[in-house]
Amino acid sequence: MLLAHKIELRPTADQADYLARACGSRRHCYNKLLEHFSQKDVKWSKAAAYQHYINIIRPAFPWYNEVSSRVTRNAIDDLDNAFKHFFRRIRENKPANPKAKTFREKFGFPTFKKKGIGDSFALREKPKFDVEGRELRIEKLKTKIKMRQPLRFTGTLNQVTISQRAGKFYASILVNTEDYNPHAPEKDAVGVDFGIKSLAVFSDGTETPANDALKRNLKALKRKQRRLSRKQKGSNRRARAKLAVAKLHKRIGDQRQAVLHELSDRLTRDYKVICLEDLNVKGMVKNGKLARPISDAGFGMLRRMIEYKAELRGVEVAFIDRFEPSSKTCSECGQIHDMPLDKRTMECDCGNVMDRDMNAARNILARGLDTLRPDLKRTQESSQTVSAASVLTA
Ligand SMILES: [Zn+2]
Asked: What's 116's DSSP letter?
């Protein structure tokens, strides 16, 4: 299955310059080709375009050499696609723009690309680009570009499309992946407790720490908002402060999403069964006992991510209603203890001594398995994973 993951890049100034030049070269080449094939009596074909590119365009613009030759060559494929759509609309008599005056406009003849609108370029074959961890390597660029997230899928890399929007660069990486076919995660079932100190604690003791960069940005946001409130209405300074707040908001949103993707990936990749508390019930989200990415509407996002990834990966999820406080119950013997928030360890007279959050995660796991048990039995006997597989390949 082909899946795309779009990741924001963090290029250095030099790298950003390279990327911008690549976008420019691709746009220039596309427009030069289109200029030639827009003439009357010049008929489009991919072969003719290639000849024109090699013999006329490329020699005329030696600066194309500064970027990977694929950047400009791929403009042929892009224009070929645009022409294919144009011819198809004519064949099917489906005008793109029925009211247009000219035939070309009516059927959506390819148009010239403008700077700043849909700026992008693509590299299609793996040796031309590669991804290692959080770094992207592309041809003719000696240094690797930092990515804000690691690639979400494993598999064969088919293509990277780098685009520029509002001064930022993004890489959309197309992966041919087996990853989303149901597989057998190594670990069985896990209970998850969300908190403040850690984003999440798993019942096997694994912790996902709260994201420090996100925390810092949230603090900075508060500061910037205060500053904004002090500025005079209608002033330039206020406009500037407002822009700064908006930018940071966007940044925080992206960061939060990345954090939640990592968490949901980890859960659905490693465990066969995931048990979580449904935090949307009883105003749990408002109680301030959660790390920021989960609170303020983040839980809904996390829930959706876990649900779709679990379905694709053939993993079971139990969202359990909040029950008698999971952090107050001893996960070994079931006794209820007084557990004020600052008490970080569950100490029970049955001998159980355990980190508060891990104890809660274990309770959530037990409760989740209770609610799932009938389903679980069926999974083991029959073909739950097979049916998920047939859905995927259909
Ligand atoms: Zn106990």
From this structure: T
